């Protein structure tokens, strides 16, 4: 059996080293795998027939050259180092494995000796600090003698018995040993008095009481963990989203994540409306209008009229009085006068301020979501250099269930496909002639797309004018669905035409294809909504002078939302299910249709824009949108699993969520906010319904409230000042808008700065690796020169002798030193070396 090398590195200890010990946290990371690594290395050495022994002086092998080099087994074209160089490499911190159990016990025994020294105990014989063994320097049989380990264990137990209980428990918790070993050490280190006290309990209780208390504590702890796990599992569609991402990739998953985000936005918008408008008015209903209520026919579910007209669903139901105050309306008008308001809760103010507050909260949430999504998706390293990380570091070893492991396997596989497809597309190039042809085809396709959008806009405008010229009577309620049906048909048919035109472009990148489709569909839907807004506020207000035009606008938006959901179901049925059946039964093809990400995302944005436009005229429209989104999720998920296939060209949707949130913020939310601001400030409300009747504008309700506050006394004089300088003055609005834009800009700049810093750090890591390779090569050359100059048959010293150190620092006369050559090769790294 070969004797282990007694390699000692003479390093002068500083006074600071006497009071420092290796951290138990650092040792625990390597100690657990020590025994397993020893077995693996022993098996490998037994197979290879390699013995890591100290070379005898003058002994040579069949592969030993005269210069003292020993050829070690290694891969082809690999640099073969000498034995002395291998010793230096084995002494590097990265080549060490960890400490054995005996070394750990010995170390903590020394620590306990120092702790006992503080309480004036006689000093025991100190045991030297154990060095970190290396497999390349020592023989593979590293287990110490059983007798020596038992002696160290006995001494450690003796020292632990003399420590206070709290200090003893703290030291045992810090030891990098197994739980069973720690439990044995704790039991052995307890004194007879402590054991008796442990049997009686910490406060002299009987054993049964102590066991009952421990059982209660464990039960409460288990209950808390169960509640946390339940809250984690209650996240909406947690498993469904993982399943979609694993089978169809991040591109399809981005649609469902965006739908989930819209659900949260609508819930946030609905809560203040329910609390301060709908709930309060339902608790204090206004007087019923004269005449009998219309009967329910079922058509109201589509039109939103009939029995739904005089409910909390629409603007006209809400009163213009102060609640909790008796109101005696005149017999003719059926309304309260302005003088009736005097008690705390004014319904006009609550209606105006609640809608404004809900929109302000939504704006803040949108800006934060957009900035956060931008920082997450555009960070450095999101797509580059993650292949190795995905292959070697993506698997979660805590997953034990078969279903969860299969789902994780699908996720990793799909993610690797997307990364490889993205990497292959970056390597492609196009010739000059191909670029010219590509630009000409795309220009023609864009002209046709814009022409289609213009035709749809003219059709909507013409049909809306026809509806104004031929008004619909109350008996013909079904005819009110004509304009929403035309709008939904155009929104459904135009995207299919855009998809046919996009097939002529033949985009190389699926990401660019989706962005172009989103842009074309967005232009179509926003232009149509602009025509409808002009139709409602510009034409309908003048046509419905003596009627409640706010109720009509709310019903029109309700019809659009409901019919949009119906057409989404029809599109899913005929566009995916029927097409799959035709393809499989008639065409005998196994290819299923792909999920249209652009069209479906624009449908979500369109429906959310309708909801924001109708909040002022129908406060319960967000609740309808929530129900619609829930149904759309399950319908789309079922259709996706049964009728669709994964994209033929996988692509990584790293920035897709950011693009969707941006489109939701600027064209959609900004347009809805402008529409509502114009309705509040410029349009005269109806004189027969709603909380703002008999006012010149909805905004005038705030002025009336300020005048009442000025007459109330000096105690509330600060409220009119706030209204005059913060609400009526436009400067705070511009200031808040500028601050929001500044926050977005600063966040973008911070992300750019982080990207630059990360790039510099990556470059520095690369340079550090090159420096290490260079220094190892110089060490190899220095030892080669030393062994050539030494007599044949004598082995080089295992340590760094003085001549070798001189060669590294100053070099031999006439030969460049390692530092000189390193400075010549890396002039920009001189300070780091």
UniProtKB/TrEMBL annotation:
Region annotation Disordered: where it falls in the sequence: 1-33, 45-75, 787-814
Residue ranges annotated for the TMC domain, each copy included: 548-654
Coiled coil segments of this chain: none
Ranges annotated as spanning the membrane: 217-234, 255-284, 349-369, 444-464, 479-502, 514-537, 557-582, 658-681, 731-748
Membrane topology of this protein: Multi-pass membrane protein
Keyword vocabulary terms for this entry: Membrane, Transmembrane, Transmembrane helix
Pfam family, one: TMC
Iron-sulfur listed as a keyword: no
A GO MF term: mechanosensitive monoatomic ion channel activity
GO cellular component, one term: plasma membrane
Family: Belongs to the TMC family.
Protein's name according to its UniProt entry: Transmembrane channel-like protein
């Amino acid at each position: 059996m070969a004797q282990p090398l007694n390699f000692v590195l003479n390093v002068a200890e500083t006074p600071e080293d006497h009071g420092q010990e290796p951290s138990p946290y650092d040792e625990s990371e390597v100690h657990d795998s020590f025994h397993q690594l020893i077995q693996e290395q022993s098996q490998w050495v037994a197979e290879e027939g390699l013995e890591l022994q100290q070379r005898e002086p003058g002994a040579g092998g069949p592969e030993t050259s005269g210069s003292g080099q020993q050829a070690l087994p290694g891969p082809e074209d690999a640099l073969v180092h000498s034995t002395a160089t291998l010793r230096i490499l084995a002494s590097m911190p990265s080549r060490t494995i960890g400490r054995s159990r005996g070394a750990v016990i010995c170390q903590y025994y020394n620590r306990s000796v120092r702790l006992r020294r503080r309480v004036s105990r006689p000093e025991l014989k100190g045991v030297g600090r154990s060095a970190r063994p290396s497999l390349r320097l020592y023989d593979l049989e590293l287990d110490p003698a059983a007798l020596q380990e038992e002696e160290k264990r006995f001494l450690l137990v003796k020292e632990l018995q003399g420590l206070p209980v709290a200090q003893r428990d703290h030291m045992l918790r810090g030891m990098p040993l197994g739980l069973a070993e720690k439990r044995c050490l704790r039991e052995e280190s307890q004194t007879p008095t402590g054991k008796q006290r442990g049997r009686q309990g910490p406060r002299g209780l009987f054993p049964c009481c102590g066991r009952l208390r421990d059982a209660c504590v464990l039960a409460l702890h288990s209950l808390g963990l169960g509640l946390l796990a339940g809250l984690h599992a209650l996240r909406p569609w947690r498993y469904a989203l993982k399943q979609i991402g694993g089978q169809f990739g991040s591109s399809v998953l981005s649609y469902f994540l965006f739908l989930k985000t819209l659900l949260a936005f609508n819930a946030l918008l609905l809560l203040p409306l329910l609390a301060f408008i709908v709930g309060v008015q339902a608790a204090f209903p206004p007087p019923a209008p004269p005449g009998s209520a219309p009967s329910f026919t079922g058509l109201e579910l589509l039109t939103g009229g009939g029995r739904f007209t005089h409910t909390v669903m629409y603007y006209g139901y809400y009163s213009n009085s102060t609640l909790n105050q008796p109101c005696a309306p005149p017999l003719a008008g059926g309304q309260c006068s302005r003088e009736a308001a005097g008690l705390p809760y004014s319904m006009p103010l609550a209606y105006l301020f609640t809608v404004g507050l809900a929109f302000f909260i939504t704006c803040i949430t949108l800006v934060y979501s957009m900035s956060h999504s931008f920082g997450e998706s555009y960070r450095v390293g999101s797509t580059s250099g993650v292949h190795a990380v995905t292959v070697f570091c993506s698997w979660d070893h805590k997953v034990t269930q078969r279903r969860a492991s299969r789902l994780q396997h699908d996720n990793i596989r799909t993610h690797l496909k997307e990364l490889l497809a993205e990497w292959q597309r970056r390597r492609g190039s196009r010739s000059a002639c191909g670029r010219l042809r590509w630009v000409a085809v795309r220009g023609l396709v864009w002209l046709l797309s814009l022409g289609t959008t213009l035709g749809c806009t003219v059709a909507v405008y013409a049909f809306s004018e026809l509806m104004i010229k031929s008004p619909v009577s109350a008996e013909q309620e079904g005819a009110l669905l004509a304009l929403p049906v035309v709008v939904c048909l155009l929104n459904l048919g135009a995207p299919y035409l855009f998809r046919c035109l996009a097939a002529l472009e033949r985009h190389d990148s699926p990401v660019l294809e989706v962005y172009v489709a989103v842009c074309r569909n967005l232009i179509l839907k926003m232009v149509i909504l602009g025509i409808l807004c002009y139709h409602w506020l510009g034409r309908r207000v003048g046509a419905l002078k003596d009627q409640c035009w706010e109720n009509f606008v709310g019903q029109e938006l309700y019809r659009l939302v409901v019919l949009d959901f119906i057409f989404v179901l029809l599109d899913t049925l005929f566009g995916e299910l029927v097409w799959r059946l035709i393809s499989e039964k008639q065409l005998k093809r196994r290819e299923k249709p792909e999920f249209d990400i652009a069209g479906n995302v624009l449908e979500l944005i369109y429906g959310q824009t309708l909801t924001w436009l109708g909040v002022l005229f129908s406060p319960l429209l967000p609740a309808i949108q929530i129900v619609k989104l829930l149904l759309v999720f399950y319908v789309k998920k079922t259709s996706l699993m049964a009728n669709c296939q994964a994209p033929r060209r996988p692509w990584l949707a790293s920035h897709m969520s950011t693009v969707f949130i941006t489109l939701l913020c600027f064209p959609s939310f900004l347009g809805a906010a402008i529409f509502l601001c114009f309705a509040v400030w410029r349009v005269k409300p109806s004189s027969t319904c709603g909380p703002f009747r008999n006012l010149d504008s909805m905004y005038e309700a705030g002025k009336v409230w300020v005048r009442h506050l000025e007459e109330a006394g000096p105690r509330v004089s600060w409220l009119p000042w706030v209204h005059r300088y913060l609400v009526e003055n436009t400067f705070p609005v511009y200031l808040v808008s500028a601050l929001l834009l500044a926050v977005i800009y600063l966040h973008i700049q911070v992300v750019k700065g982080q990207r630059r810093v990360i790039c510099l750090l990556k470059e520095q890591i690369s340079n550090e690796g090159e420096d290490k390779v260079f220094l190892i090569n110089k060490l190899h050359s220095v030892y080669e020169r030393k062994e050539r100059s030494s007599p044949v048959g004598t082995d080089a010293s295992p340590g760094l002798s003085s001549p070798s150190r001189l060669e590294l620092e100053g070099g031999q006369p006439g030969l460049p030193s390692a530092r000189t050559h390193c400075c010549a090769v890396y002039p920009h790294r001189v300070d780091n070396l």
